[in-house]
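[User]
If only I could read backbone structure tokens as easily as an amino acid sequence. I have put the entry right below:
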Amino acid sequence: MSHSPKSTLSASTQLIHQLFYYLDQADYPKLAALFTPQGTWKRQGELLSGHAQILNALSKRPTTQRIRHVISNTFISATEPASATLTAYMTAYRFDDGSHTTGAVTISRPFRLSVVHAKLEVTDGDWRVAELDLVPEFEFAADSATMAASKA
């Protein structure tokens, strides 16, 4: 199966956007399905391998956390007929005061900026994540209001 560079970028970007949207929505089964069966995710210092490990790790996330991942500067750095390497920036915004909130919340800064490295493969005709690595580049200093909210 051969893909043009333009269609590869479009499909790869869509895949990564879906993955982080499902992460933000806590729709972990849909997120895990975006990985190949043996797909790996280097997440928070731990190497997760396969759908079961990914689902298990994500099930431990706080249910009161609201987080949004914004993906930008996406490009394909290498392509083969059925694989591609994607690089992007991810800015994460996080709020968690220990309660289930609705509506807009106030935060004063992003949480983190990381570089996303993903190896993607075509599996059964669809692009899937074979390897995902998030490398933190910037941690943003917590302000006193954020610190107080996280301790409440």
Notes: The two ends are 53 Å apart (CA to CA). Helices lie at 5-24, 28-33, 50-58, 144-151.
